[in-house]
Amino acid sequence: MDPLIVLFGLGVGILIGMTGIGGGSLMTPLLILVFGTKPVVAIGTDLAYGAVTKTLGAWRHLRKGNVDLGTALWLGVGSCPGAIVGVLAIEWIEKRYGDSFEDTLLISLACALFIVGGAVLFRALFVTRLADRETESFAFTAKTKILAAGIGFVLGVLIGLTSVGSGALIGFALILVFRLVPQRVVGTDVFHASVLLWVAALTHLAFGNIDYGLMLNILVGSLPGVWIGTGLMAHVPTIGLRITLGVVLFASAFGMLTKAGANIGLGVIVGVPVAIAIGSWLIYRSRTTRTPQIQT
């Protein structure tokens, strides 16, 4: 057992339980940047541990009535095949380009982290709760079923390729497109992700991309963490966590680019996230002084 990995797993598990985000977005960069894990193995291992962790969270949210099964189903129609396509793509590219592929994968991970970090910050700062637009369950038509499957497919491919975004990006769609109430956003997100991650993880398993010892270390911390986080969800304001997570994701993205060989100075790696943190705090303060802030 590695106490540091267990501790990271606990922290990420709590974040997943409270907000539905943070799994692949944090753990994959940690495994690569801190523990030196090979990128493809880090992605496969992260997806496998995430599948187990989010299954526990999904069960708890389902029991609490926080899951819109219809929305999860139609997202899954697209996202599960998309995840398989993403994993197959990463395997094909690696076989074609060999070791030189790792830098490309790191750059892809960095781009995914920038996208997810931006989505997390936008959600925290600009997507406020509008009670008259939110619903407990989305009413689907033929067109919206196709839309949900299409959104799911695109995000599934991204997750299969990078393991990043199963919580943040899908949760973002649940707010903007399906307009679910906050607890249903988290519950539906975690439930859908639990299925999606199993599909992606089993596909990575077929190619031998999972480190079982590493996965066990993470699970020792993440399983109690997600249990704790799910219980805290209704009691802890999450906007501060989301802003912090968004800033950390930007810093991780710069770290990925540096590991890929990009010549990025320390001033950029540290200065840009600090500037984003200050800017986010000023935006949050200006919005809360104008109108009362209600969490999403």
Account of the protein in words:
This protein is mainly alpha-helical. It has one domain (3-290). Helix content is 78%, strand content 0%. The chain is built from eleven helices and no strands. The protein has helices at 3-19, 23-33, 39-63, 69-97, 101-126, 142-162, 168-176, 182-206, 212-232, 239-259, 266-290. The longest helix is centred in the first third of the chain and has 29 residues, at 69-97. The relative contact order is 0.21.
Separation of termini? 37 Å
Q: Residue ranges: pLDDT <50 for 5 or more in a row?
A: none
Radius of gyration: 18 Å
Question: How many separate domains make up the residues?
Answer: 1
Mean pLDDT: 83
For the sheet with most strands, the description reads: none
- Helix share bin: over 70%
Order of helices and strands: HHHHHHHHHHH
| Percentage of residues in DSSP E strands | under 5%
From the spread of the alpha carbons, the general shape counts as globular
Q: Which structural class matches the secondary elements?
A: mainly alpha
Number of strands: 0
The number of distinct helices, counting runs of at least 4 residues, comes to: 11
